[in-house]
Write a structure and sequence with these properties.
The chain has helices at residues 26-35, 68-74, 92-97, 100-104, 108-118, 165-194, and strands at residues 3-11, 16-23, 47-56, 59-61, 84-86, 122-133, 136-145, 150-152. The chain has 195 residues and is of the alpha/beta class. A hairpin with a 4-residue loop joins strand 7 (136-145) and strand 8 (150-152). Helix 2 packs across helix 6.
Length: 195
């Protein structure tokens, strides 16, 4: 490490948060990882547009207010992931371009148009189904690669609800983001191994 900086410090009762930037010599780190035979990936993921759809009581919610699933993504830090996740602004032309049903049905030309607007190479349609069970609920996440028109299988992704819907949606967004980053790294390690 050749240096670091701490920005955006925040102190709360039992929490401390900050953006910590670490400067290091890339060549030395890659030499160390190679020497120890540790696989790694240096590639940053593509700019990926997130479309968070909530399915509650058979009603699809994307642009409607409130959409706690969209809010959960808005409340996340801007740059904690290898994949460059971005959210649409929900302006009038977004509403005209793409409806929640269009996104759920993976309407290619409509998804392509919104990806062009935001300069995204990928679109992930994240549908969270909220299933009510008596006084509780279950969250079921389905993820689709909109431009490739296929489901992203979440084989080793497990999520347990805590009973607080808003906190669970934020936790689900964070856990999915980390999981998707891991998929990205694994894919690139495999690609580099083939080379």
């Amino acid at each position: 490490v050749s240096g670091y900086s701490i920005d955006s410090e925040s102190f709360k009762k039992n929490k401390y948060s900050a953006l910590i930037s670490v400067n290091f010599e890339k060549k030395k780190v890659t030499e160390l990882l190679d020497k120890k035979s540790i696989k790694y990936s240096l590639q940053e993921g593509p700019k990926t547009l997130i479309l968070p759809i909530m399915n509650l009581n058979s009603r699809l919610i994307l642009w409607d207010d409130p959409n706690p699933w969209f809010e959960a993504w808005l409340s996340r830090p801007l740059d904690p992931n290898l994949n460059q996740f971005i959210l649409p602004s929900g302006e009038v032309d977004d509403l005209i371009t793409l409806s929640a049903i269009d996104a759920k049905n993976l309407q290619y030309y409509k998804l392509k148009n919104i990806s062009i607007k935001y300069g995204a190479k990928k679109i992930l349609v994240l549908i969270v189904n909220i299933l009510k069970k008596q006084n509780n609920y279950i969250l079921d996440l389905k993820v689709f690669n909109g431009l490739e028109q296929k489901e992203v299988f979440l084989e080793q992704f497990n999520f347990l609800s805590s009973g607080d819907l808003n906190k669970d949606l934020i936790k689900l967004a964070n856990e999915f983001s980390n999981y998707y980053d891991d998929l990205w790294v694994t894919k690139n390690i495999d690609k580099n191994s083939l080379k």
